[in-house]
Amino acid sequence: MNDQPVITLDDDTIAQVRQDVQPHWGPLGWVTYKRTYARFLDEEHRTEDWEETVKRVVEGNINLDPRLHDIDPNAVSEDDRKIVDGLQDEAKRLYSLIYGLSATPSGRNLWVSGTDYQRRHGDSLNNCWFVAIRPQPYGKSALVPDYLEAKQPAVSMPFAFMFDQLMKGGGVGFSVTRDNTSRIPAVARTTDLTIVIDGANGSAEESRASGAVDRDEWLAQRKASGTDSARSPFFSTIPDTREGWVLALAAVIDAHFGYFNGDGSSLVLDASDIRPRGARIHGFGGTASGAAPLIEMLRDVNETLNASLGRGLSAVDATDIGNLIGKAVVAGNVRRSAELALGDWDDEGFVTMKQDQTKLYHHRWASNNSVAVSGDPEQYERIADAIRTNGEPGIVDLDLSRHYGRLADGRSETSDAHAEGTNPCGEITLENGEPCNLFEVFPNIAEQQGWDLNEAFSLAARYTKRVTFGSYDWEVSRNVIERNRRIGISISGIQDWFLTRFGHRVVVGTDENGRPRYDQNAVTVMNGLYQAVVDADKRYSAELGCSPSLKHTTVKPSGTVSKLAGVSEGMHFHYAPYLIQRIRFQEDDPLLPALKACGYTIEPDVYTRHTMCVEFPVRAANADAKDFASAGSVSAREQLATQAFLQTYWADNAVSCTVTFRDEEKPSLPAVLSQYAGSIKSTSMLPYTGSGFKQAPKEPISKAQYEEILARISGDAQEVFARMNGNTDLKDLELVNQTDCAGGACPVR
């Protein structure tokens, strides 16, 4: 098998695209890109430039085409040459599409595609995953505890899967519904967990504060008592690797369920080999957190299981363990934890678990919580009472997800019969172990740049199809990906496009029964674009000799990626026609002097130490259009109607939407939400807050204020930065609290 890239983009191709195409940077676009997706080039002491990032991303993706694996670049047959030439041409078109910001792959792909890490771990190309919390076998996976047979179901497996994917930078949705947690056996025993650490470890003091004990003192005490625990089968050293951390968690969980060759009542783990806080992480990038977050998490998980002695884990117990895992990952500073817990709509303990303020602030903040419903309006009404008080839970209609693609195509018993949940943002229905696989097109920009949208969406379909041929670490994922080949082609900047293309919003009124009426031109266009994606997938699947994708289209919430191009996020309405967008930087970031020189307002962040807050004036596309609406003015009813439109005519997966509601709408939420029972697969709702606190991420302003601020800004930040710094940069800098979607559920890296 050939491991070297066959398809490459030469300097002449890149130079030609740069001459012909101007990237459509939004007001925050280049700055956001530079601190989020531009990888550091050690040998040149700088971060990538945009043309280099796009080259890396496209070459990393195009060479996933499985037909290239057996081609010898030095002896190419005529048939192989046709394949290579076709993919070479496709790479050029794909490069032009992404470089101009008419479309982009997911944030994960922008960060990882084309790296050695991606080639070792295909999982890293996927933003998010889903796993059912029930005993499962590890199978032929990269991680299998040595006390288990590969085919042996174990309670630890879904939690190990979650921990592994979170540490690779993905988000994880997980199901704790009764049909899953009821399969977990009763906790058979309590476990006395001891974690030791060498006093010479750079994080020893912090680790002892988290509950570890000094290894030399512990060994001395054991020796004095005549016990050589270092030779005990329950004594294990935690390797300084991602795999080592995952297996340590697995051991702590499984000790309670009789999987060891013994009683599992005592477990000793040695954390001395874990690198100290601040040490460099090779491969994924960033710096280490030290052992303390892992130690705290292992001890808290152990306490949760000890407290469950003699009974199975409840949805709350299982969610707590998932949240403790997420908390440990966030403490690593490099990664962002994204979790969605899916429980039963009538599980009162699960629905109210965030009302425990102590546990909420300790770890229960780590997931967004949703409930599985069946489309019964009464369920929606009951849930709405909780939503208008707490903004949670979200809603996932599993029956609709399993039996419908696009609603316009009607019910099918085999549409997605094995789907069990969603990713954390809710736009992709997923089976156990399955990832979301995303690409988004900005149709408003694509049309401005002269693209035929059918071609743009076809290139997107082929890009995501290749991602399904990555090298995946877990058997459960390999099996479901090969079977489903699920892709998720999304549209972002939808509200911008509707106003530009059709002259008004897509909901044009209601009928005599209060049902929404839609612009019929929009219906026709969406049907055509959906068919373009399906047809492109069928053609490419035939070329590759694999099955067509189970589902194809979605609307992701977007976030950081939409900031690059300066478009509205997914299907969401702009926050306001004019606003101040605040972005937070580390205080030593060399971008800050360049931004100051350009006239941007910069001040210390009032919430986070060693952080600076920069204000960017933003004007929404079509801000002055007669039919423009923002999140602060559009009704919750119209937002749900728009989501239903996209679920009907575009998305065969799901549509991610966080519906905002104003105080005066709260009394009507039960009726509004129940009206769309059976029309939306997943949704969440939050009150619209405007800018009610200091240094809000988004602050609505008037047009006059916008123009006043804009007048103070001069010069191009990209050019000023290059001039002031000689195009050199610092390593390991990123924006503070940045996420890859509008609702904050998906991590960037």
UniProtKB/TrEMBL annotation:
Residues 9-115 form the Ribonucleotide reductase alpha-helical domain. This is Adenosylcobalamin-dependent ribonucleoside-triphosphate reductase. Its cofactor is adenosylcob(III)alamin. Keywords: Cobalamin, Cobalt, Disulfide bond, DNA replication, Oxidoreductase, Redox-active center. It comes from Bifidobacterium mongoliense. It holds the Pfam family RNR-II_ins_dom. Belongs to the class II ribonucleoside-triphosphate reductase family. InterPro entries: RdRp_reductase_class-2, RNR-II_ins_dom, RNR_alpha_hel, RTP_Rdtase_AdoCbl-dep. Residues 192-305 form the B12-dependent ribonucleotide reductase insertion domain. GO terms for biological process: DNA replication. Its EC number is 1.17.4.2. GO terms for molecular function: cobalamin binding; nucleotide binding; ribonucleoside-diphosphate reductase activity, thioredoxin disulfide as acceptor; ribonucleoside-triphosphate reductase (thioredoxin) activity. It is an enzyme of class 1 (oxidoreductase). It catalyses: a 2'-deoxyribonucleoside 5'-triphosphate + [thioredoxin]-disulfide + H2O = a ribonucleoside 5'-triphosphate + [thioredoxin]-dithiol. Coiled coil: none annotated.
